[in-house]
C-alpha cells in the first residue's frame, strides 16, 4: 500500500503499467488516499520503508528521484515503530509471512488498524483479533 501511495502521488500514469504497481489503477490511488484521510496517524515500520525503497530501484531518472524524495518525507514526518527482528522471528507466523509482515503483525495494537493487499497478512491479523482491512474489498 505504501508503494501504491508513493507511485500514485508522484505519477498516477504509472499505475497499471510500471513494475510492482501493474495491478493498480489511478482510481485505486484515489480510494487509498481517501481511506487514509480517515485516520489521524499513519504508522510506518523501518522494514516497510526499506522494502519500498528497494522496490523503487526499478524506476529511473526523475520518477525514481521524486518517489524516493516522497518516501523520505513520509519517513521523516510519520510515526515509526521499530520491532526487533529477534521478536518477529519468534512469532508463529514468521515462517509463512516473512520478517516484514510478521513485524507488521507485532506492531498492531488495540488502537491500530491494518490496511493491506496481502491476503495472508490480512488473515493473520484477523486471527490475532486485530483490526484489518483488505484493500481489494475497498475496490469492490
Task: Produce a short descriptive summary.
The chain is mainly α. Helices cover 56% and strands 9% of the residues. Helix 8 (119-127) links the parallel strand 3 (113-116) and strand 4 (131-134).
Describe the structure.
It is a single chain. The protein is mostly helical. The chain has 2 domains: 1-82, no CATH class; 83-140, no CATH class. It is 56% helix and 9% strand. The protein is built from 9 helices and 4 strands; from the N terminus they run H-H-E-H-H-E-H-H-H-E-H-E-H. Strands 1-2 form a two-stranded parallel sheet. A two-stranded parallel sheet has the order 3-4. Helix 8 links the parallel strand 3 and strand 4. Helix 1 packs across helix 2 (26-36) and helix 1 crosses helix 4. The protein is globular, with a radius of gyration of 15 Å. The model has no long low-confidence stretch (mean pLDDT 95).
Primary descriptors:
140 residues, 2 domains, 9 helices, 9% strand, mainly alpha, two-stranded parallel ribbon
Lateral arrangement of strands in the main beta sheet: 1-2
Radius of gyration: 15 Å
The total beta strand count reads 4
Separation of termini? 16 Å
Put simply, the count of helices is 9
Secondary-structure-derived class: mainly alpha
Element order: H for helix, E for strand: HHEHHEHHHEHEH
Fraction of residues in helix: 55-70%
Spans of at least 5 consecutive residues whose pLDDT stays below 50 are none
β-strand amount = 5-15%
Largest sheet: 2 strands, parallel
Query: What overall form do the CA principal axes indicate?
Result: globular
Mean pLDDT: 95
Tally of distinct domains: 2
Amino acid at each position: 500500500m505504501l508503494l501504491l501511495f508513493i507511485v500514485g502521488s508522484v505519477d498516477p500514469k504509472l499505475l497499471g503499467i510500471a513494475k510492482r504497481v501493474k495491478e493498480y489503477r489511478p482510481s485505486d490511488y484515489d480510494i487509498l488516499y481517501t481511506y487514509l484521510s480517515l485516520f489521524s496517524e499513519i504508522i510506518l515500520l523501518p522494514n516497510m520503508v526499506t522494502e519500498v525503497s528497494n522496490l523503487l530501484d526499478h524506476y529511473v531518472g526523475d520518477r525514481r528521484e521524486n518517489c524516493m524524495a516522497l518516501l523520505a518525507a513520509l519517513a521523516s514526518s510519520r510515526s515509526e515503530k521499530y520491532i526487533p527482528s529477534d521478536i518477529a522471528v519468534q512469532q508463529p507466523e514468521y515462517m509463512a509471512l516473512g520478517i516484514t509482515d510478521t513485524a507488521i503483525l507485532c506492531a498492531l495494537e488495540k488502537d491500530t488498524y491494518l490496511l493491506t493487499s496481502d491476503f495472508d497478512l490480512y488473515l493473520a491479523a484477523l486471527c490475532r483479533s486485530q483490526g484489518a482491512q483488505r484493500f481489494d474489498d475497498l475496490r469492490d
